[in-house]
Write a structure and sequence with these properties.
Length: about 130
């Protein structure tokens, strides 16, 4: 079992930046692929970004590629999502997710993750 706690959400104007952080506990962090998903009102949860257990591979949704950067610190058991050039359509609740040794096409599927944080709201005003 893994406990995940997100932080860093808030309100920002379009074009601005936010940095989300997720702190993990309860299982060896270095075995976990970490993902970020988001869910806007009335929409399904969608993949945003992921980083594999060693940090060797990162994955991004096309909608955020070039604007968002995911990174992890295995010494601190944290994963961050740096979000730049934010757009109103980035408004959503952002969730951190974790599961062991996911890679490739698996990382974009919410069903593959067995551990989720409570979510943090990101609102981008136009």
């Amino acid at each position: 079992q893994v406990q995940l706690v997100e932080s860093g959400g808030g309100l920002v104007q379009a074009g601005g930046s936010l940095r989300l952080s997720c702190a993990a506990s309860g299982r060896t962090f270095s075995t976990l692929t970490m993902g970020w998903f988001r869910q806007a009102p009335g929409k399904e949860r969608e993949f945003v970004a992921a980083v594999t257990w060693s940090g060797g591979s990162t994955y991004y949704a096309d909608s955020v590629k070039g604007r968002f950067t995911i990174s992890r610190d295995n010494a601190k058991n944290t994963v961050d999502l740096q979000m730049n050039s934010l757009k109103p359509e980035d408004t959503a609740v952002y969730y951190c997710a974790a599961d062991r040794y996911l890679s490739g096409v698996q990382v974009a599927s919410a069903y593959k993750y067995g551990n989720w944080g409570q979510g943090t709201q990101v609102t981008v005003s136009s």
